[in-house]
Structure formats: structure tokens, C-alpha cells
Amino acid sequence: MNFIEQFLWVIFPYIALTIFIVGHIYRYNMDQLGWTAKSSELMEKSSLQWGSILFHTGIIAVVGGHISGLLIPKTFFEFIGVNEHMYHMAAVYGGGPAGVVTLVGILILTFRRFGNDRVFAVSSKADLLVAVLVLVEVVLGLTSTATNVFQVGIFDYRETISPWFRGVLFLKPDDSFMTSVPLVFKLHVVTGFGMIAIWPFTRLVHVWSMPIEYINRTYIQYFSRDLKDKSLY
Prior knowledge:
By secondary structure, this protein is mainly alpha-helical. Helix content is 64%, strand content 0%. It has helices at 3-30, 46-71, 74-79, 84-115, 117-121, 125-150, 161-169, 183-198. Helix 1 (3-30) packs parallel to helix 8, helix 2 runs antiparallel to helix 4 (84-115) and helix 4 runs antiparallel to helix 6.
């Protein structure tokens, strides 16, 4: 067994997942005040607004597609009547546009992060690293999709990457599944686990702090500071 292959597809995923879990526990207990996206809206708002909306809208769809493709076995889709062609069309015409929207969003955010002097000045090294890694990951993902669109023989990741990934989750990793996987897909997977490893130490932790309770929060009451005006606002 090739050591590099074993490291990439057996050892490295568990290193990344361990850091992911332990890192989140550590940061939550030691740095709750820093558990934030550290908004730079005051420095520049226009491109942040557009980039954020496009990126978050696209990434939700992209993550949903990845979850269904990686965690749900191909046999299940076939059982409910979704054949290979139907799934491929859904991935191309559904996942493709979602990926493009995500790419446009992260491009706007990345150029803003590096190109705006005020935003760059308040950006940490972790902020810059995250921007670059997310951009690279999205580009690799879209390239993988394009590879399946334009190549003669369609590569079905549900027969290789998906069972390997489920094996990792169930502590039965089999690196032989990754042997025939095209390079761009391998780079996409490795970059993804790299992001998982650094996740707890970056602004990405804000994903777990969605203000869902805000929907049911009671109205905040404001009172005038004018002593002569006791009206309720």
C-alpha cells in the first residue's frame, strides 16, 4: 500500500476531524467572545452585501448537494427511480448554477478582502487564509463538475468517493476506492479536509451560531431619554 495514498485517504481525514472536534470544544470554552464572523461592514458595505448574499445562497445549495451525493448510497436513488442520467442532469443543471453563484460570491468577497485597504488592514492571517481556501475549493468543485460535463466517459463519484467517505465516517476507511479518482476530485477532497482542520480557529465557527432564536424574540422596547417625554417608542 502506497504510504502517500494511505496518509491522504486514511490518516489525514481523521487528523482533520479530530482537530475539528477538539478545536471547537477548546475554542468554545476558551474564546467565546471571539466566536464570531468579525464583520467588516463598517469598512465597506456595498460589495460585502452582494458577495455575502450570493455566496451564502449558493453554498447552501452546494452543501445540500454534497450531503445527498456523499451520504446517500447510489442504490437508494436507483430504488426510488433516479437513474444515473437523471442524477447527472440534476447535478449539472442544479449543482452547476449553484456553484457559479457561490463562485461569484466568494470572488467578490476575496477581492474585497485583499483589494480594499481598509478591509485588508483589519483582516487577520486566518481571515485571508479562509478566503483563499474557500475560493480554491469552489474552483476545484466547479472544475470537477465541468470535467464530468465535457469528458467522454462520465466519472461517477458515487461509486468511489462516496463509499470511501462513508467508510471514513463509520471508521472503516478503504483507500482503494480513491485509486481511480481523477486528480481534480482528489484535490477537491484534500482541500475540503484542510478546511475542516482549520475551521475551529477561523471565522468559519460562526456557522454554528445562527441566530435562530431571533425569530421568536420579543420586541425590544425603547424609551425616550427626554424627561418631559415619557411616551413609549
